[in-house]
Design brief:
Blueprint (H helix, E strand, L loop, with lengths): L1 H8 L5 H13 L3 H13 L6 H13 L3 H14 L5 H13 L3 H10 L5 H8 L1
């Protein structure tokens, strides 16, 4: 809560500060708060990057927020990050945690490059 208060008082918030807040909430299982911060970031016109997408998708996965995860997946595609292996892995993980294995497999099958995390995400 103290970090959120300090974040709100920052005169200028860059992508690093936004990503730090989203990631911190996502890592602590507070996906709803991560989603709220992500939405606030969008309202303020800050453009998300691959780190943002990875963090917010992990936040969605943590609370099985399928509707929000699907919207973010669309945002990933529109932003051109679907070819980013780390982001794609986070999408697969999110769909898997939400129990939508067909969509997880669909993303996996369309990946041009896969790593060990990709394989673990689709197997798990």
């Amino acid at each position: 809560q103290e970090a959120r208060s300090m974040f709100g008082k920052l005169p200028e918030r860059d992508i690093i500060s936004w990503n730090s807040m989203i990631g911190a909430y996502a890592q602590r299982g507070r996906g709803k708060e991560a989603i709220d911060i992500f939405r606030q970031m969008q309202v303020e016109g800050v453009i998300p990057n691959g780190i943002t997408f990875t963090a917010i998708l992990n936040g969605c996965a943590g609370i099985a927020a399928l509707a929000e995860g699907k919207l973010i997946h669309c945002h990933v595609v529109m932003s051109g990050y679907e070819s980013d292996v780390i982001v794609s892995n986070a999408i697969i993980h999110m769909y898997g945690k939400c129990g939508i294995l067909e969509d997880a497999r669909w993303v996996f099958d369309r990946m041009l490059e896969r790593d060990a995390v990709s394989w673990n995400a689709i197997i798990a």
